[in-house]
Structures are given as structure tokens and as C-alpha cells.
Amino acid sequence: MTKLFKFTAIAEGISYLVLFANMLIVKPSNLELYKTLLFPIGMAHGLLFIGYVILALAIRTAQNWSFKDLFVVQVASLLPFATFYVEKKYVRNA
């Protein structure tokens, strides 16, 4: 389960950055391409976000996270690049 969480954390972080790139780079230059890409990128990011949150709750006891650690892991899902930090610092023995 820890390997799955590590993969999901990295994939969620990448999808978040791709979503931002679509919004900041593609939207100003090509509105049609932006609209075409928005749904599949957004859907993938949404599913990965939900998976990240659920898997974090599921592996909480296996990783011996305190409430504070779990809070940091959950808040990291809302910040760009933070899931990469969580994957490095909080996830052990994968």
C-alpha cells in the first residue's frame, strides 16, 4: 500500500503542475486547446487527489503518523510541489 501511495503522491503532484501549465501557458495562447485539455487533465487530477487523500488515511497507522503528521500530509495535497516533499519526508519503507 505504501508503494501505491508513493506513486499516487508523485502522480498527483505532476497532474497539479500540468493543470497549472494548462491554465497559465495554454489558455492565453489557444483558448480552444485549453478547453479541450481542461476536462481530461482536471478529471485525472481530481481522481488522483481523492486517491491521495484516501490512501493517506489508509496508511496512517502503518507509517506511525501522529495527527500533526497526517494534517501536514493532507494539507500538502493542496499545495504545488508539496506532495513531492511528503513522498520524500513522510513515507518510509516502501
TrEMBL record:
- One Gene Ontology term, aspect cellular component: plasma membrane
- Give the residues annotated as coiled coil: none
**Pfam families in the record:** DUF3817
Query: Which InterPro entries did the record assign?
Result: DUF3817_TM
Q: Where are the transmembrane segments?
A: 7-25, 37-58
Lipid bilayer topology: Multi-pass membrane protein
Keyword annotations of the record:
Cell membrane, Membrane, Transmembrane, Transmembrane helix
Cell membrane: is it a keyword of this entry?
yes
Q: Which domain of life is it from?
A: Bacteria
What is the annotated localization of this protein? Cell membrane
Q: What is its main location?
A: membrane
Occurrences of domain DUF3817 (ranges): 3-92
Q: What is this protein called?
A: DUF3817 domain-containing protein
State the organism of origin.
Flavobacterium silvisoli
Q: What is the lineage of its organism?
A: Bacteria, Pseudomonadati, Bacteroidota, Flavobacteriia, Flavobacteriales
